[in-house]
Amino acid sequence: MSGEKEEKLEKIRVRIAPAPTGLFHIGTARTALFNYLFAKKHQGKFILRIEDTDKERSKLEFEKDILQGLKYLGIEMDEKLYRQSERSDIYEKYIKKLLEQDNAYHCFCLKEELEAQKQEQLSRGKPPKYNGKCRNLSKKEIKENLKQEKSFVIRFKTPNEKIIFNDLIRGHVEFDSNLIGDIVIAKNLSTPLYNLAVVIDDFEMKISHIIRGEDHISNTPKQILLQRALGFPELKYAHLPLILGPDRTKLSKRHGATAVSEYQKQGYLAEALINFIALLGWNPGTEKEIFSMRALIKEFSLERVQKGGAVFNAKRLDWLNGFYIRQKSPEKLTELCIPYLLEAELLAPIERQKEIIKGLHELPFKTTGYKILETEEIINFDFLKKIVSIYQERLKKLSEISELTDFFFKDKLEYDKELLRWKEMSDDEIKNSLKKSEEIISKINTQDFNKENLKNILMAEAEIIGDRGKLLWPLRAALSGKKASATPFEIAEILGKQKTLKRLGQAKEIVSRK
RNA sequence: GGCCCUAUCGUCUAACGGUCAGGACGCUAGAUUCUCAAUCUAGUAAUAGGGGUUCGAUUCCCCUUAGGGCUACCA
After folding, report:
1. What are phi and psi of A287, to 5 degrees?
2. A178 is a domain residue
3. Complex ipTM value
4. For chain A, what is the domain count?
5. Fewer CB within 10 A of the terminal residue: chain A, N end or C end?
6. Of all nucleotides in the shown strands, which has a C1' nearest the CA of A475?
7. Is A230 a member of any domain?
8. Could you tell me the distance in Å between the CA of residue A315 and the C1' of nucleotide B2?
């Protein structure tokens, strides 16, 4: 009871602390999401700290990718961005303190020396551990070495004790510090290494809970020891299960796309990715599985986080993405698809017409016309909306839109004669079928040229023939140039009477080929 | 090798110690249908093994097995 009260009073502050040494990873994204959900659920703060102490590997482009990915996913930070590279002064203070307190010492051992030692230990089947050679150097020796400008690092005098912590997800976890050895905590007085930097920053930033991947679990005892030496209060830990590839090893590049930005490029909606990722290692305990960010915030709890790793099931993500695509309004979906059509160079935006867009900057897609590159025809947003709409339920990823609808943006379709053949039809039968369609379609008035009319009239005729495919397959193939597509009625309506007839004519010509 | 973590359908997972072990994705079949989707219906498939504890274990304990993570002057 009192514990519960205490929990409420405490300010929840969480963070993610990625290193900008690669693109924003899907695993980092999930860690970010869980931190964010936990913070929002408890009116706490979510913070982003860039861990760029490794100057060689850290790149600004990766930091940008992280920021961009977070924005795309709709995960907002509550405070300004922190960079470890800008906090040297803070670290220096604590590194000196550790040295003064005799919790740390200068180590002048050579890398080669250490490496040989390690190999030797390993070959004897012993756990590799620093032998403590420099642990008891006298002040004089240290001074002397420093004066000679010998290169050094700073090591932590790892105390010999049991470290026990209560993981919010796993419960009791125990380590023996004996196995750890004197770890290197800083390269010099102002550049700490990961374990130290984390401890200092989490304290300075008043972080209350550390929610991170299970791959960090063995860092936890080191960090707890450092906290104790520095006199910092102990934090609450929650180690998330890992996201796994199909072979059940930690999700990595060799499994395929791991960067959030890659998924974004492929046309996965943020809603789908969030929903999918949330259910990787967490569940609401009910059978509900469609969750908006709002719903997740409402229902999330660390208690319901799984302990075992979760395999990234791309098929399920695709299904969710298709689901969310189907939920979009046609306008919104069209806006989302346009960049892919531009990318495929089917279209190009034309100059904006100033008089039209005046004061309408917030609706660029609706006020901008497009030129079909192949035909130089000018089309508007509504036309694109029609095209996108008939593919809405067939789309799994936005990127598929261009290959699905490219035939709307072409003048002449190129395909093999065989495409027009339904079952065992002969060439003459195909030609007659096309002629029949031509005949029927010619008779429809331009103002009545819509899919309902087309369907009524063509279906009636197909019904007379008996096997509907005899009429409809060649027609649809002629209009789309594809084995699979939307219905011929929908396509014809968008194409318009004139182009529809033109394509039928082209098809007849193709059948006549040898 | 050492330390740590984990274990329910192929995958994500549900199940106060008492359920015909449930749902979803996938897959298969059917309905619909010119095609591809979408949609609807049905089917498929799991408690790793062995010991306890208990009237009763998916559930609690132990062992085994299997898998994973970590083992840097990276984070």
Report:
1. -90, 5
2. no
3. 0.96
4. 3
5. C
6. B34
7. no
8. 38
Q: Which residues pair with A231 in a beta bridge?
A: none
Domain membership flag for residue A181:
no
Nucleotide nearest to A483 (CA to C1'): B35
Structure tokens belonging to residue A425: 């039809």
Distance separating alpha carbons of residues A184 and A192, to the nearest angstrom: 9
**Alpha carbons A122 and A126: distance in angstroms, whole number:** 5
pLDDT score recorded for residue A318: 98
Please name the nucleotide lying closest to A111, CA to C1'. B73
Q: Which residue, A297, A327, A357, sits at the end of a domain? A: A327
User: Do A205 and A17 contact (CB within 8 A), yes or no?
Assistant: no
Backbone angles phi, psi at A370, to 5 degrees: -130, 150
Shortest CA to C1' contact from A49: nucleotide: B75
What pLDDT does A119 receive? 86
CATH of the domain at A495: 1.10.10.350
Residue at which a domain ends, from A409, A444, A477: A409
| CB-proximal positions of chain B, under 7 Å | 1-8, 10-15, 22-26, 33-39, 67-75
Of all nucleotides, the one whose C1′ comes closest to residue A311's CA is B11
A151 in a structural domain: no
Residue A357 has a pLDDT of 44
The residues pairing with A369 across neighbouring beta strands, listed in sequence order, are none
pLDDT of residue A353: 52
- The Cα–Cα gap between A482 and A469 comes to 15
CA–C1' A264–B34 (A): 35
Yes or no: say if A113 and A99 are a contact pair by the CB < 8 Å rule. Answer: no
**Domain that includes residue A302, residue range:** 1-83+241-327
Q: Check whether residue A484 and residue A403 sit in a common domain.
A: no
Task: Find the Å distance, CA of residue A221 to C1' of nucleotide B60.
Answer: 28
Q: Which residues of chain A have pLDDT under 70?
A: 1-10, 351-368
Cα–Cα distance list, A368 to A40, A168, A340, A355, A420 (Å): 39, 53, 16, 12, 37
State residue A122's pLDDT score: 82
Q: In this complex, which residue's CA is closest to the C1' atom of nucleotide B12?
A: A280
How confident is the model at residue A351, as a pLDDT?
66
Exposed e or buried b per residue across A107-116, where buried means at least 16 C-beta atoms within 10 angstroms of its C-beta: bbbeeeebee
Tell me the whole-structure pTM to 2 decimals: 0.94
Distance CA A437, CA A504 (A): 8
Same domain, A402 and A470: no
